[in-house]
Write a structure and sequence with these properties.
about 425 residues; alpha/beta; Urease, subunit C, domain 1; TIM Barrel; 2 domains; eight-stranded mixed sheet; eight-stranded parallel sheet; 14 helices; 16 strands
Length: about 425
């Protein structure tokens, strides 16, 4: 079936253009070009239409903590609260929660999510009858919410860099040995709307002698890892291995064009150089919510790393805000405006995010690409009167009006076409407390 949209404005690879005709057939864009005319018989998309946004780093269950972690503390005190939330979930309740969270992402213009999944087993660490029940719940939830997913199944074997054993809630994260993880991981099957990737949780959660096996076993797959999120993590790695987390990953062959360093907040100049050709995923709203710090986004981009964006703990689900924050945080650090061109920021939120998740055919409004469209209103109190090319510095997720994923309309007039998102979020979260 052939579908046409006439966009008031659209952000094409060449830049923002007016009166753009986009033709879609079998979930693919077959035509995306300036029409130069208006036809009332073709569906109009008023506003600015962007490529689909890629949320490259998500922990769906963290959404339950939004508004529930006030007061003083640090990442480590917040983590205790996160563990308490994790202990309450089972495959059924996780599916219910994740479906609502992924639908919230769709409302924000996210067409693909990278789910960094380590909540594998029952609270006591015992495997479910289906060892991948929790991962399969996430895969199903994304499909029902109308978004694509890359499930980044996570290797998690120890509690500290020094090798302390898992205990308490952490027991459900671990498979005991690398071989046990790899056996379970190998049984995962990707649905049509999904991909299977892998994650090495962090240098504190996986012994260094397993890095090489992990790198060999996951060759060619999207691979993500938390890297230098905390100063304490760097210090522990230096004490145990005499090098930074990035240097340790490089030493064992984990880095490369398939690899994404998540957070990458506290890097040395050597670390930045080593990440050349890899991806670096920034999650600014989480990093500031947890007081983690501001990562060297401009330096990484200048060194040849590809930037992507994520909402991580979902303190906010707004990829436009995450994108804008990369620029604004750099301004704070450098005390100078204009650190990134708008097109650079858009690529981080779209094409580069999709590439890091294993979707090379998404993230651009061009013939042959997946038909993912995100239309942002230009007549709200935030966007009225702006230059459409400045939308990333003005709009928010609340301004997203229309979302198409693989040719299917998922959001229309600002409402999810399948799910009452606010109701389902409220019911899923309140059931846990």
């Amino acid at each position: 079936m052939l579908t046409h949209y006439l966009c008031e404005y659209a952000w094409l690879p060449s830049g923002v253009a007016r009166d753009v005709l986009i033709a879609i057939e079998d979930g693919r864009i077959t035509r995306a070009e300036q029409a130069g005319w208006v036809d009332d018989h073709i569906r109009h998309l008023p506003g600015l239409t962007l490529p689909g946004l890629a949320n490259a780093h998500s922990h769906a269950f963290h959404r339950v903590l939004r508004g529930r972690t006030p007061g003083k503390g640090s990442f480590w005190t917040w983590r205790d609260q996160m563990y308490a939330a994790a202990a309450k979930l089972n495959p059924e309740s996780y599916h219910r929660l994740a479906r609502a969270v992924f639908a919230e992402m769709a409302l924000a213009g996210v067409t693909c999510v990278g789910e960094f999944h380590y909540l594998h087993h029952a609270p006591d660490g015992v495997r479910y009858a289906d060892p991948n029940a929790m991962g399969e719940a996430l895969l199903a939830a994304a499909g029902e919410a109308g978004v694509r997913i890359t499930l980044l199944d996570t290797l998690y074997l120890q509690a500290t860099v020094d090798g302390d054993p898992l205990a308490g809630t952490q027991l459900r994260f671990g498979d005991g040995t690398f071989d046990n993880w790899y056996e379970r991981f190998g049984d995962l099957k990707a649905p049509a709307h999904g991909r299977i990737g892998a994650a090495l949780h962090s240098v504190r959660a996986v012994p260094a002698d397993a890095f090489g096996e992990f790198a060999e076993a996951t060759s060619g797959l999207p691979v993500h890892a938390h890297v230098s999120e905390q100063v304490a993590e760097n210090y522990a790695c230096l004490q145990a291995h005499g090098c930074t987390p990035t240097e340790l990953l490089d030493r064992h062959g984990v880095l490369g064009g398939h690899f994404t360093a998540v957070h990458a907040t506290h890097l040395t100049p050597r670390d930045i150089d080593l990440l050349r050709g890899s991806y670096a995923c920034f999650c600014p709203t989480t990093e500031r919510d947890l007081g983690d710090g501001i990562g060297p986004a401009r330096a990484l981009a200048d060194a040849g790393a590809w930037l992507t964006l994520g909402s991580d703990s979902h303190a906010v689900i707004d990829l436009i805000e995450e994108t804008r924050a990369v620029e604004l945080h750099e301004r704070l650090v450098r005390q100078e405006r204009g650190q990134f061109e708008p097109a650079e920021l858009l690529r981080a939120a779209t094409a580069e995010g999709h590439l890091s998740l294993g979707w090379p055919d998404a993230g651009t409004l061009a013939a042959g690409q997946r038909a993912d469209l995100v239309t942002v209103a230009l007549d709200t109190v935030r966007t009225a009167g702006i230059d459409p090319a400045g939308v990333l510095m003005a709009a928010s997720a609340a301004d997203v009006r229309h979302v198409v994923v693989d040719g299917d309309v998922v959001v229309a007039d600002g409402r999810h076409t399948r799910i009452d998102v606010a109701r389902e979020l409220s019911e899923a979260i309140c059931a846990l407390f």
